[in-house]
């Protein structure tokens, strides 16, 4: 899926995918993932390995004992979750560290984990869901890197993502959801994850859902995960509003959402 030529004409640079993720994506595509090879690949990049281990030892991952090597992490958590954290560390590394993005990275971490956990229990591809949640707002980081003086105040003042998207279109001719989807294409994420990122603003604001059936369950997971983060008391309502559109079995979705929400509340 090529990047929209209209976006190229705006001269907004999209960060290149790090080489280690190229190799990691090939490993994930194998029918049986080689844990030893994956661990060696991640550990071969010292900065990436350190970031992965620091992240995985945080309370939110619920490990009962500290992991000291990537191989240990793979044994405890599996390839999907470890690979997703490697993607998160690589994503953050291509952008400058700024206070404006701190809240966004926090949400990305939580959203990705929540979506991955729900997907796994619902029989959906966990890594695809986790990566969709992780990259959902990455277009904001691209925009901030492109025009920090103009975009920083806009990002901080935005009352909601749909209003922010309108301001972005007026100021830059592109919105962060489209820009984020373009970056996902550049980084060769799964097409369903790309579509989820592209439609997240519309879906969250009660607008159009994508017509691609493989992406619609991810959009439902994204919506529910965002309620878990921002308005946890509304999670049941979010499940009821999105289950039929996904389509997902409402009772199963509700049970999984409540279980994941309960587990995560003990780790925060």
TrEMBL record:
PANTHER family: CYCLIC DI-GMP PHOSPHODIESTERASE CDGJ (PTHR33525:SF4), PTHR33525. The keyword Magnesium does not apply. InterPro entries: HDOD, RNase_Y/CdgJ. One of its GO terms (molecular function) is kinase activity. Gene3D superfamilies: Hypothetical protein af1432. Residues 14-203 form the HDOD domain. It comes from Caldimonas caldifontis. Keywords: Kinase, Transferase. This is Histidine kinase. Pfam families: HDOD. It comes from the Bacteria. The keyword Mitochondrion does not apply.
């Amino acid at each position: 899926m090529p990047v929209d030529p209209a976006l190229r004409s705006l001269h907004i640079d999209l960060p290149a995918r790090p080489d280690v993720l190229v190799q990691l994506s090939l490993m994930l595509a194998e029918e049986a993932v080689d844990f030893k090879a994956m661990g060696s690949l991640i550990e071969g990049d010292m900065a990436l390995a350190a970031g992965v281990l620091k992240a995985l030892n945080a309370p939110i991952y619920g490990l009962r004992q500290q992991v000291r090597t990537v191989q240990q992490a793979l044994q405890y958590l599996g390839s999907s979750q470890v690979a997703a954290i490697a993607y998160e560390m690589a994503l953050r590394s291509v952008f400058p560290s700024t206070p404006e993005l701190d809240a966004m990275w926090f949400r990305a971490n939580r959203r990705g984990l929540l979506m991955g956990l729900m997907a796994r229990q619902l029989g959906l591809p966990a890594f695809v869901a986790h990566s969709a949640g992780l990259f959902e707002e990455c277009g904001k980081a691209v925009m901030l890197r492109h025009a920090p003086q103009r975009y920083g105040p806009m990002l901080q003042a935005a009352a909601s993502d749909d209003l922010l998207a309108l301001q972005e279109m007026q100021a830059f001719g592109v919105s962060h959801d489209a820009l984020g989807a373009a970056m996902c294409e550049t980084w060769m994420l799964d097409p369903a994850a790309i579509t989820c990122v592209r439609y997240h603003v519309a879906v969250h604001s009660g607008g159009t859902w994508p017509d691609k059936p493989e992406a619609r369950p991810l959009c439902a997971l994204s919506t529910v995960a965002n309620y878990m983060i921002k308005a946890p008391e509304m999670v049941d309502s979010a499940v009821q509003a999105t289950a039929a559109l996904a389509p997902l079995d409402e009772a199963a979705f509700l049970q999984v959402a409540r279980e994941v929400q309960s587990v995560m509340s003990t780790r925060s």
